[in-house]
Amino acid sequence: MSDLVTARLVLHPMSVGEAERVVAGEAGSGDRWAPGYPSDGDVSAAERLLRACADTGDPRPFGTYEIRRREDGRVIGGVGFHAPADETGSVTIGYGLVPSARGKGYASEALRGLLLFAREHGITRVKGDADHDNAASQHVMTAAGMRPTGEDERVRFFEIAWTDETTASPGPHS
């Protein structure tokens, strides 16, 4: 499977070997990790990918992606699907960036790229959530075209859905 490319980023589908290195916290000779990568969230996503590969096979294209800056190839975070689409065509996403990459629009750009990819591959609904005190993550989802749909005691829920009448683009590209 090929990389997804946005204006400033490359969303690289994580392989089993890359996921194993992320879980171990040990970069390989070709890995270009930014300081702070992998985070706990990146490790969790890599573990989820490895479990999926062992249980049901590689979930690509609905797996985990490394977020790499095009300018220097550094891995600055991750974005991806928690699992393949359910029977209704719905998926759940997650994302995160190393602290030094935050506040530059990278997360919104990566999420917009992933949403466009999902729409182009027949997904009808994408869901996500953010902790109540994580205003930055809530902003990322709204900037990418997702809308709040509810909340519980811990998180606020967001989603975007498409029908035949809606556009294939989740929002403006940066």
From TrEMBL:
Residues 9-165 form the N-acetyltransferase domain. It comes from the Bacteria. One of its GO terms (molecular function) is acyltransferase activity. Pfam families: Acetyltransf_3 (PF13302). Keywords: Acyltransferase, Transferase. SUPFAM superfamilies: Acyl-CoA N-acyltransferases (Nat) (SSF55729). It is an enzyme of class 2 (transferase). InterPro entries: Acyl_CoA_acyltransferase, GNAT_dom, Ribosomal_N-acetyltransferase. Its EC number is 2.3.-.-. This is GNAT family N-acetyltransferase. It comes from Streptomyces flavovirens. The lineage of its organism: Bacteria, Bacillati, Actinomycetota, Actinomycetes, Kitasatosporales.
